[in-house]
Amino acid sequence: MTADPYPGYAWLREHDPVCPVDDPHVPGRTWLVTRYDDVRACLADRRLGSGAPVNPDPHPPGLSQLDDPEHAGLRRLVAAAFTPAAVSRLRDRTARTCAHAVGSFAGRGRADLVAEYTREIPVAVVHDLLGVPEAERAPAADVLDMWYRAKFQQPRDEAKLAEMLAYVRRLVAYKRSHPGDDLPTRLIESGALTGDELEVMIMTLIGAGHITTIQFLGTTVLRLLDHPGRRAALLAGDIDWSQAINELLRLDSPDHVAEYRYAGEDMTIADARVAAGDVVLLSLAAANRDPDRFPDPDTLDLTRDARPHLALGHGAHTCLGSHLLKLQTEIAITTLFGRLPDLTLDIPSGEVDWGYAPTFRGPLALPVTFTPSVSRAR
Protein backbone atom coordinates (compact mmCIF):
# COMPACT_ATOMS: atom_id res chain seq x y z
CA MET A 1 0.00 0.00 0.00
CA THR A 2 1.36 3.45 -0.86
CA ALA A 3 2.35 5.94 1.82
CA ASP A 4 -0.40 8.30 0.68
CA PRO A 5 -3.33 6.64 -1.14
CA TYR A 6 -5.64 9.61 -0.62
CA PRO A 7 -4.91 11.55 -3.84
CA GLY A 8 -5.83 8.40 -5.75
CA TYR A 9 -9.06 8.07 -3.80
CA ALA A 10 -9.86 11.72 -4.52
CA TRP A 11 -9.40 11.17 -8.26
CA LEU A 12 -11.68 8.12 -8.18
CA ARG A 13 -14.40 9.94 -6.21
CA GLU A 14 -14.47 12.68 -8.83
CA HIS A 15 -13.94 10.72 -12.05
CA ASP A 16 -14.85 7.05 -11.49
CA PRO A 17 -16.73 6.62 -8.19
CA VAL A 18 -17.79 3.02 -8.93
CA CYS A 19 -14.72 1.66 -10.60
CA PRO A 20 -14.03 -1.84 -11.99
CA VAL A 21 -10.81 -3.22 -10.45
CA ASP A 22 -8.72 -6.36 -10.71
CA ASP A 23 -8.72 -8.58 -7.62
CA PRO A 24 -6.83 -11.84 -8.09
CA HIS A 25 -8.29 -13.28 -4.89
CA VAL A 26 -11.93 -13.39 -5.99
CA PRO A 27 -13.64 -14.76 -9.10
CA GLY A 28 -15.72 -12.58 -11.37
CA ARG A 29 -15.97 -8.82 -11.69
CA THR A 30 -15.07 -6.50 -8.81
CA TRP A 31 -16.16 -2.89 -8.22
CA LEU A 32 -14.58 -0.27 -5.92
CA VAL A 33 -16.99 2.32 -4.47
CA THR A 34 -15.44 5.55 -3.12
CA ARG A 35 -18.09 8.28 -2.52
CA TYR A 36 -19.47 8.69 0.98
CA ASP A 37 -23.17 8.56 0.11
CA ASP A 38 -22.73 5.50 -2.12
CA VAL A 39 -20.58 3.62 0.42
CA ARG A 40 -22.96 4.34 3.30
CA ALA A 41 -25.97 3.24 1.23
CA CYS A 42 -24.23 0.05 0.14
CA LEU A 43 -23.25 -0.85 3.72
CA ALA A 44 -26.95 -0.95 4.61
CA ASP A 45 -28.19 -2.49 1.35
CA ARG A 46 -29.40 -6.05 1.97
CA ARG A 47 -28.99 -6.86 -1.72
CA LEU A 48 -25.26 -6.86 -1.05
CA GLY A 49 -24.50 -9.98 0.95
CA SER A 50 -21.43 -10.65 3.09
CA GLY A 51 -21.17 -14.34 2.31
CA ALA A 52 -19.56 -15.60 -0.89
CA PRO A 53 -21.98 -17.44 -3.22
CA VAL A 54 -19.62 -20.41 -2.97
CA ASN A 55 -17.48 -20.75 0.15
CA PRO A 56 -14.25 -22.63 -0.63
CA ASP A 57 -13.17 -22.53 3.01
CA PRO A 58 -13.85 -25.84 4.80
CA HIS A 59 -14.25 -23.98 8.11
CA PRO A 60 -17.50 -22.24 9.14
CA PRO A 61 -17.63 -18.54 8.21
CA GLY A 62 -17.00 -15.87 10.82
CA LEU A 63 -19.38 -13.07 11.78
CA SER A 64 -18.25 -10.79 8.97
CA GLN A 65 -18.99 -13.45 6.34
CA LEU A 66 -22.58 -14.07 7.46
CA ASP A 67 -25.86 -12.35 6.66
CA ASP A 68 -29.02 -12.15 8.74
CA PRO A 69 -30.64 -14.00 10.34
CA GLU A 70 -27.53 -16.15 11.05
CA HIS A 71 -25.38 -13.06 11.57
CA ALA A 72 -27.85 -11.43 13.96
CA GLY A 73 -28.18 -14.60 16.01
CA LEU A 74 -24.43 -15.06 16.47
CA ARG A 75 -23.89 -11.36 17.10
CA ARG A 76 -26.41 -11.44 19.95
CA LEU A 77 -24.37 -14.19 21.62
CA VAL A 78 -21.33 -11.95 21.98
CA ALA A 79 -22.81 -8.44 22.00
CA ALA A 80 -23.15 -8.24 25.79
CA ALA A 81 -19.37 -8.42 26.16
CA PHE A 82 -18.94 -5.24 24.08
CA THR A 83 -21.49 -2.86 25.59
CA PRO A 84 -20.14 0.38 27.10
CA ALA A 85 -20.79 -0.96 30.60
CA ALA A 86 -19.01 -4.25 29.92
CA VAL A 87 -16.06 -2.54 28.24
CA SER A 88 -15.69 -0.08 31.11
CA ARG A 89 -14.94 -3.01 33.40
CA LEU A 90 -11.76 -3.55 31.39
CA ARG A 91 -10.51 -0.01 32.08
CA ASP A 92 -8.31 -0.78 35.10
CA ARG A 93 -6.82 -3.89 33.52
CA THR A 94 -6.13 -2.00 30.28
CA ALA A 95 -4.47 0.83 32.21
CA ARG A 96 -2.18 -1.68 33.94
CA THR A 97 -1.35 -3.29 30.59
CA CYS A 98 -0.44 0.08 29.06
CA ALA A 99 1.62 1.12 32.09
CA HIS A 100 3.50 -2.18 32.04
CA ALA A 101 4.21 -1.86 28.33
CA VAL A 102 5.57 1.68 28.67
CA GLY A 103 7.60 0.66 31.70
CA SER A 104 9.31 -2.07 29.69
CA PHE A 105 11.12 0.51 27.53
CA ALA A 106 10.83 3.82 29.41
CA GLY A 107 14.31 3.58 30.90
CA ARG A 108 16.08 3.14 27.55
CA GLY A 109 15.42 6.49 25.90
CA ARG A 110 14.42 4.91 22.59
CA ALA A 111 11.88 2.35 21.36
CA ASP A 112 9.86 1.13 18.41
CA LEU A 113 6.35 1.99 19.53
CA VAL A 114 4.71 -0.44 17.12
CA ALA A 115 6.71 -3.49 18.15
CA GLU A 116 6.79 -2.61 21.84
CA TYR A 117 3.52 -0.79 22.48
CA THR A 118 0.74 -0.44 19.93
CA ARG A 119 1.09 -4.10 18.87
CA GLU A 120 1.25 -5.51 22.39
CA ILE A 121 -1.72 -3.77 23.97
CA PRO A 122 -4.62 -4.97 21.76
CA VAL A 123 -3.49 -8.60 21.92
CA ALA A 124 -3.25 -8.42 25.71
CA VAL A 125 -6.67 -6.77 25.99
CA VAL A 126 -8.31 -9.40 23.78
CA HIS A 127 -6.80 -12.13 25.94
CA ASP A 128 -8.23 -10.33 28.99
CA LEU A 129 -11.63 -10.29 27.29
CA LEU A 130 -11.35 -14.01 26.63
CA GLY A 131 -10.35 -14.72 30.22
CA VAL A 132 -7.03 -16.34 29.30
CA PRO A 133 -4.50 -16.35 32.16
CA GLU A 134 -0.98 -15.11 31.52
CA ALA A 135 0.54 -18.59 31.64
CA GLU A 136 -1.72 -19.82 28.81
CA ARG A 137 -1.11 -16.92 26.41
CA ALA A 138 1.04 -17.11 23.32
CA PRO A 139 3.32 -14.08 22.83
CA ALA A 140 1.68 -11.27 20.89
CA ALA A 141 4.18 -11.60 18.04
CA ASP A 142 3.30 -15.29 17.62
CA VAL A 143 -0.45 -14.65 17.63
CA LEU A 144 -0.08 -11.88 15.05
CA ASP A 145 2.18 -13.95 12.82
CA MET A 146 -0.28 -16.85 12.86
CA TRP A 147 -3.26 -14.60 12.15
CA TYR A 148 -1.77 -12.53 9.33
CA ARG A 149 -0.24 -15.42 7.47
CA ALA A 150 -3.35 -17.59 7.82
CA LYS A 151 -5.75 -14.85 6.70
CA PHE A 152 -3.85 -12.66 4.26
CA GLN A 153 -0.98 -14.54 2.68
CA GLN A 154 -1.76 -15.66 -0.86
CA PRO A 155 -1.77 -18.51 -1.43
CA ARG A 156 -2.95 -19.00 2.14
CA ASP A 157 -0.37 -20.37 4.53
CA GLU A 158 -2.11 -23.59 5.52
CA ALA A 159 0.56 -24.41 8.11
CA LYS A 160 -0.04 -21.10 9.90
CA LEU A 161 -3.79 -21.59 9.66
CA ALA A 162 -3.42 -24.99 11.31
CA GLU A 163 -1.21 -23.43 13.97
CA MET A 164 -3.79 -20.72 14.62
CA LEU A 165 -6.61 -23.25 14.86
CA ALA A 166 -4.53 -25.38 17.23
CA TYR A 167 -3.96 -22.35 19.46
CA VAL A 168 -7.67 -21.54 19.49
CA ARG A 169 -8.55 -25.16 20.26
CA ARG A 170 -6.19 -25.09 23.23
CA LEU A 171 -7.91 -21.94 24.48
CA VAL A 172 -11.35 -23.51 24.09
CA ALA A 173 -10.22 -26.69 25.84
CA TYR A 174 -8.78 -24.63 28.67
CA LYS A 175 -12.03 -22.69 29.14
CA ARG A 176 -14.03 -25.92 29.14
CA SER A 177 -11.96 -27.16 32.07
CA HIS A 178 -11.51 -23.74 33.71
CA PRO A 179 -14.83 -21.89 33.28
CA GLY A 180 -15.01 -18.30 34.44
CA ASP A 181 -16.88 -15.05 34.10
CA ASP A 182 -15.77 -14.51 30.51
CA LEU A 183 -16.98 -14.62 26.94
CA PRO A 184 -15.73 -18.12 25.94
CA THR A 185 -17.36 -19.65 29.01
CA ARG A 186 -20.68 -18.00 28.18
CA LEU A 187 -20.47 -19.19 24.58
CA ILE A 188 -19.66 -22.75 25.70
CA GLU A 189 -22.47 -22.81 28.28
CA SER A 190 -24.98 -21.42 25.77
CA GLY A 191 -24.71 -24.61 23.72
CA ALA A 192 -25.62 -22.54 20.65
CA LEU A 193 -22.42 -23.26 18.71
CA THR A 194 -20.91 -26.45 17.38
CA GLY A 195 -17.27 -27.12 18.15
CA ASP A 196 -16.13 -25.73 14.78
CA GLU A 197 -18.38 -22.68 15.09
CA LEU A 198 -17.04 -21.93 18.56
CA GLU A 199 -13.45 -22.15 17.35
CA VAL A 200 -14.14 -19.84 14.41
CA MET A 201 -15.94 -17.37 16.69
CA ILE A 202 -12.97 -17.24 19.07
CA MET A 203 -10.53 -16.90 16.16
CA THR A 204 -12.67 -14.09 14.72
CA LEU A 205 -12.67 -12.26 18.06
CA ILE A 206 -8.90 -12.58 18.36
CA GLY A 207 -8.36 -11.25 14.84
CA ALA A 208 -10.99 -8.52 14.85
CA GLY A 209 -9.97 -7.49 18.35
CA HIS A 210 -6.41 -6.64 17.45
CA ILE A 211 -6.05 -5.93 13.76
CA THR A 212 -7.97 -2.64 13.54
CA THR A 213 -6.73 -1.39 16.91
CA ILE A 214 -3.06 -1.97 16.07
CA GLN A 215 -3.33 0.10 12.90
CA PHE A 216 -5.32 2.84 14.61
CA LEU A 217 -3.11 3.17 17.69
CA GLY A 218 0.01 3.48 15.55
CA THR A 219 -1.53 6.05 13.24
CA THR A 220 -2.94 8.03 16.17
CA VAL A 221 0.45 8.19 17.89
CA LEU A 222 1.98 9.43 14.64
CA ARG A 223 -0.71 12.07 14.11
CA LEU A 224 -0.32 13.40 17.67
CA LEU A 225 3.47 13.48 17.34
CA ASP A 226 3.00 15.61 14.22
CA HIS A 227 0.54 17.96 15.98
CA PRO A 228 1.93 18.78 19.45
CA GLY A 229 -0.45 21.67 20.05
CA ARG A 230 -3.53 19.57 19.40
CA ARG A 231 -2.03 16.75 21.47
CA ALA A 232 -1.52 19.12 24.41
CA ALA A 233 -5.11 20.36 24.20
CA LEU A 234 -6.42 16.79 24.10
CA LEU A 235 -4.33 15.63 27.06
CA ALA A 236 -5.26 18.74 29.03
CA GLY A 237 -8.94 17.89 28.70
CA ASP A 238 -9.76 20.83 26.44
CA ILE A 239 -11.04 18.48 23.73
CA ASP A 240 -13.55 15.69 24.26
CA TRP A 241 -11.92 12.28 23.83
CA SER A 242 -14.84 10.69 22.04
CA GLN A 243 -15.00 13.54 19.55
CA ALA A 244 -11.25 13.44 18.97
CA ILE A 245 -11.18 9.70 18.41
CA ASN A 246 -14.02 9.92 15.89
CA GLU A 247 -12.06 12.54 13.94
CA LEU A 248 -8.89 10.45 14.06
CA LEU A 249 -10.85 7.45 12.81
CA ARG A 250 -12.35 9.52 10.02
CA LEU A 251 -9.03 10.92 8.89
CA ASP A 252 -7.10 7.63 8.99
CA SER A 253 -9.55 4.76 8.68
CA PRO A 254 -7.56 1.69 9.79
CA ASP A 255 -9.69 -0.57 7.57
CA HIS A 256 -9.49 0.95 4.11
CA VAL A 257 -12.24 -1.23 2.68
CA ALA A 258 -15.07 -3.19 4.24
CA GLU A 259 -15.29 -6.96 3.95
CA TYR A 260 -16.25 -8.16 0.46
CA ARG A 261 -19.88 -7.70 -0.48
CA TYR A 262 -21.56 -9.82 -3.16
CA ALA A 263 -24.43 -8.58 -5.29
CA GLY A 264 -27.41 -10.86 -4.78
CA GLU A 265 -29.14 -9.50 -7.87
CA ASP A 266 -28.55 -7.12 -10.74
CA MET A 267 -28.42 -3.58 -9.35
CA THR A 268 -27.19 -0.06 -10.04
CA ILE A 269 -24.69 1.75 -7.81
CA ALA A 270 -24.41 5.39 -8.84
CA ASP A 271 -24.26 4.97 -12.64
CA ALA A 272 -22.62 1.55 -12.65
CA ARG A 273 -24.61 -1.56 -13.56
CA VAL A 274 -23.54 -4.28 -11.12
CA ALA A 275 -24.49 -7.84 -12.04
CA ALA A 276 -25.62 -10.56 -9.63
CA GLY A 277 -22.56 -12.30 -8.24
CA ASP A 278 -20.22 -9.34 -8.72
CA VAL A 279 -17.94 -8.39 -5.82
CA VAL A 280 -18.31 -4.90 -4.37
CA LEU A 281 -15.50 -3.29 -2.40
CA LEU A 282 -16.58 -0.36 -0.25
CA SER A 283 -13.76 2.08 0.45
CA LEU A 284 -14.27 3.38 3.97
CA ALA A 285 -11.10 5.46 3.75
CA ALA A 286 -12.14 7.19 0.54
CA ALA A 287 -15.66 7.83 1.82
CA ASN A 288 -14.36 9.38 5.03
CA ARG A 289 -12.41 11.98 3.05
CA ASP A 290 -15.26 12.91 0.75
CA PRO A 291 -15.41 16.74 0.72
CA ASP A 292 -19.13 16.61 -0.02
CA ARG A 293 -19.61 15.17 3.48
CA PHE A 294 -16.62 16.52 5.44
CA PRO A 295 -15.34 20.00 4.54
CA ASP A 296 -11.55 20.28 4.29
CA PRO A 297 -11.38 16.49 4.69
CA ASP A 298 -7.57 16.11 4.65
CA THR A 299 -7.12 18.30 7.73
CA LEU A 300 -7.06 16.93 11.28
CA ASP A 301 -9.61 18.94 13.27
CA LEU A 302 -10.13 17.40 16.71
CA THR A 303 -13.03 19.77 17.35
CA ARG A 304 -14.92 18.53 14.28
CA ASP A 305 -18.06 16.46 14.70
CA ALA A 306 -16.91 13.58 12.48
CA ARG A 307 -20.06 11.55 12.93
CA PRO A 308 -21.24 9.57 11.13
CA HIS A 309 -17.85 8.54 9.78
CA LEU A 310 -17.69 5.04 8.31
CA ALA A 311 -14.35 3.83 9.71
CA LEU A 312 -16.14 1.27 11.88
CA GLY A 313 -18.76 0.40 9.29
CA HIS A 314 -22.48 1.07 9.17
CA GLY A 315 -25.60 -1.03 9.34
CA ALA A 316 -25.78 -4.63 10.51
CA HIS A 317 -22.02 -5.13 10.37
CA THR A 318 -21.02 -2.05 12.34
CA CYS A 319 -17.89 -2.91 14.33
CA LEU A 320 -18.88 -4.80 17.46
CA GLY A 321 -15.74 -3.69 19.31
CA SER A 322 -16.00 0.07 18.73
CA HIS A 323 -16.28 0.90 22.45
CA LEU A 324 -13.31 -1.33 23.23
CA LEU A 325 -11.18 0.30 20.52
CA LYS A 326 -11.99 3.78 21.86
CA LEU A 327 -11.26 2.77 25.45
CA GLN A 328 -7.87 1.33 24.50
CA THR A 329 -7.00 4.40 22.45
CA GLU A 330 -7.76 6.88 25.23
CA ILE A 331 -5.84 4.90 27.84
CA ALA A 332 -2.91 4.05 25.58
CA ILE A 333 -2.40 7.66 24.47
CA THR A 334 -2.75 9.22 27.92
CA THR A 335 -0.42 6.61 29.44
CA LEU A 336 2.23 6.94 26.74
CA PHE A 337 2.46 10.73 26.59
CA GLY A 338 1.86 11.10 30.32
CA ARG A 339 4.91 8.98 31.08
CA LEU A 340 7.06 10.18 28.15
CA PRO A 341 5.95 13.73 27.31
CA ASP A 342 8.95 14.55 25.09
CA LEU A 343 8.52 11.65 22.67
CA THR A 344 10.08 12.48 19.32
CA LEU A 345 9.84 10.49 16.12
CA ASP A 346 13.34 9.35 15.17
CA ILE A 347 12.69 9.58 11.41
CA PRO A 348 10.83 12.13 9.26
CA SER A 349 7.13 11.29 9.32
CA GLY A 350 7.22 11.15 5.51
CA GLU A 351 9.55 8.17 5.74
CA VAL A 352 7.24 6.02 7.85
CA ASP A 353 6.68 2.62 6.24
CA TRP A 354 2.99 1.79 5.90
CA GLY A 355 1.57 -1.64 5.49
CA TYR A 356 0.46 -4.72 7.48
CA ALA A 357 -1.98 -6.46 5.19
CA PRO A 358 -4.15 -5.87 2.14
CA THR A 359 -6.95 -3.38 2.82
CA PHE A 360 -5.46 -2.27 6.17
CA ARG A 361 -3.19 0.72 6.75
CA GLY A 362 -0.97 1.48 9.71
CA PRO A 363 2.70 2.20 10.38
CA LEU A 364 4.97 -0.83 10.43
CA ALA A 365 7.41 0.84 12.82
CA LEU A 366 7.56 4.04 14.88
CA PRO A 367 11.12 4.55 16.14
CA VAL A 368 11.12 7.24 18.84
CA THR A 369 13.52 8.85 21.29
CA PHE A 370 12.73 10.44 24.65
CA THR A 371 14.17 11.32 28.01
CA PRO A 372 14.53 8.06 29.93
CA SER A 373 11.94 7.70 32.68
CA VAL A 374 12.78 5.77 35.84
CA SER A 375 10.43 3.05 37.04
CA ARG A 376 7.63 4.11 39.30
CA ALA A 377 6.44 2.13 42.26
CA ARG A 378 2.91 0.81 41.88
UniProtKB/TrEMBL annotation:
The record's annotation in Pfam families points to:
p450
Gene3D superfamilies cross-referenced by the UniProt entry: Cytochrome P450
| Residue ranges, annotated region (Disordered) | 48-69
Stored InterPro entries: Cyt_P450 (IPR001128), Cyt_P450_B (IPR002397), Cyt_P450_sf (IPR036396)
Family according to the record: Belongs to the cytochrome P450 family.
State what protein this is by name.
Answer: Cytochrome P450
Name the source organism.
Streptomyces amakusaensis
The opening ranks of the lineage are:
Bacteria, Bacillati, Actinomycetota, Actinomycetes, Kitasatosporales
